Amino acid sequence: MQTLSRELENRARIATGAFARLRSEQREIDADYLILLIAKSGSAPQSVGAYLLLNHLSRETRGTIGGGRIEYRASALACELAKRGLSARLRYTLDNHKASDLGMICGGENELVFLPIHPESPLFADDSLESQDSAACLATTFRALALDRPAAPLDWRSHPDYSEALEDFAQETKFFEVYSEPYEFLPMAELAAQLTSDVDFTEALSAAQGSLLLETKRGSYFFVTTNLLPRLIICGGGHVAQAISKLLDGLEWPHWILEDRADFLNPALFSSLAKLQLVNFAELEADFSFEAQDFVLVMTRGHQYDYDVVTQLLKQMPAYVGVMGSRRKVESVRRMLAEAGFDADLIDSLHAPVGINIGAVSLVEIAHSVIAELIAVRRAVAPERQRPMRDLLNRS
Predict the structure, then answer these.
(1) Under 8 Å CB-to-CB from 164, ≥6 apart: which residues?
(2) Is the CB of residue 37 less than 8 Å from the CB of residue 51?
(3) Can you name the residues that pair with 146 across neighbouring β-strands?
(4) Pair type for strands 51-54 and 33-41
(5) Cβ-based neighbour number of residue 175 at 10 Å
(6) How far apart are CA 99 and CA 321, in angstroms?
(7) In DSSP terms, which residues pair with 93 in a beta bridge?
(8) Cβ-count burial 264-276 (b if 16+ within 10 Å, e if not)
(9) Which of 271, 338, 339, 379 sits at a 20 to 30 Å CA gap from 49?
(10) Measured at the alpha carbon of residue 40, what is the angle toward residues 39 and 41, in degrees to the nearest 5?
């Protein structure tokens, strides 16, 4: 059994919840088609792994592959392919001229896969992290799309119905192949054994900072890990929480505000994406159910209940816990947690003081610092954090 690092475990936990929300998006619009960005070079508006779910009858969508006219054209192509039960793979180059024609200012080259989907697809599998090893963690974090499965491209130009509908799209692309057989997502269980034995899989997926295209001796695969946002809960509804909430609007990041003062749960103080809930922080476990993939910020009024909230969270171990506070407050919390018998490594897993060190002073700057760290952790980038708790103590 391979050792499961905390970083891999956290990624798996976040993916579990995020894929659950992907399933929810699919059900919201009864999506039957998927456009997936599998490769890019140069400047392009979205990261590899960006997706667009589409109901080809209602034209409703969820997600984005970059917006603008290119997304409009890709959606139109997906509708034509969906009508005929076809898959496709295309590559287009956004040089300055084409980018301008498409109403965009970024250049670069993108490669897209178009494929039919259904609610039972392994893409939407409800995989939970049960086995404590790296293979299980990677199988939970990723979904595998087999790119070798369509045996041969379709000679679509020889079919009058296909050629009339697809010729315009082919003219705009650098590479365009259509398949009568669909691309398929594979149950990760099929690859679980290989994940433990094949260095191509294990090393590449363990090091991956997101979705990736992987050519191996076993075939060509696109491993999808979701770009969806983990659930974010802010314990406390004071001025910093309000500033953070309003900035989360730009990230389209839904979040919860938990507060023990009813008069602070005023929707006008927060983003429209915020869900407000009155709780008793001393008995928070009874009022709110936390999940393993959650991101949690702790900033209760006057820090009065921060210790109570943190002790409850450490028993449940969300993927991320950030604690607002000064150096002295952080030292006090650490000592109290150690005296309560919590493991030192567990205590050091807290992001405290929360936020990336940008020299923040004002309320809005502090909010930016906190959100920057949330983004860095979510993207698996090591942020330049404030001094760790243990270092602060050693200097005192």
Answers:
(1) none
(2) yes
(3) 184, 221
(4) antiparallel
(5) 12
(6) 41
(7) 109
(8) bbeeebbbeebeb
(9) 271
(10) 140
Distance, CA of 183 to CA of 54 (rounded, Å): 16
| Rounded Cα distance, 56 and 172, in Å | 21
Residue 21: how many other CB atoms lie within 10 Å:
16
**Rounded CA separation 312/324 (Å):** 16
From CA 112, how far away is CA 294, in angstroms rounded? 31
The answer to whether the CB of 66 falls within 8 A of the CB of 46 is yes
Among 183, 179, 98, 123, smallest CA distance to 148 is for: 183
Contact 111, 37 (CB under 8 A): yes
DSSP label at 266? -
pLDDT given at position 332: 87
Give the ranges where the chain is alpha helix by DSSP (H).
Answer: 6-29, 68-84, 96-101, 134-141, 160-172, 189-197, 199-207, 239-251, 284-287, 306-316, 327-339, 344-348, 363-378, 389-395
Task: For residue 331, count CB atoms less than 10 angstroms from its CB and return exposed for 0-12, middle for 13-18, buried for 19 or more.
Answer: middle
Average pLDDT over residues 12-19: 77
- Verify cis geometry, omega within 30 degrees of 0, for the bond prior to 187: no
Residue 200 in tokens: 């191509």
Query: Sorting pLDDT into bands at 50, 70 and 90, what band is 199?
Result: low
Does 6 or 279 have the greater pLDDT score?
279
How many residues in the chain? 396
Segment 138-195, tens digit of pLDDT: 888 889 898 987 778 999 999 888 888 898 888 878 889 999 988 889 887 777 666 6
**First-residue to last-residue Cα distance in the chain:** 41
- Compute the C-alpha angle 55/58/61, nearest 5°: 45
User: DSSP for 19-72?
Assistant: HHHHHHHHHHHT--EEEEEEEEESS-SS-TT-EEEE-TTT--EEE-SS-HHHHH
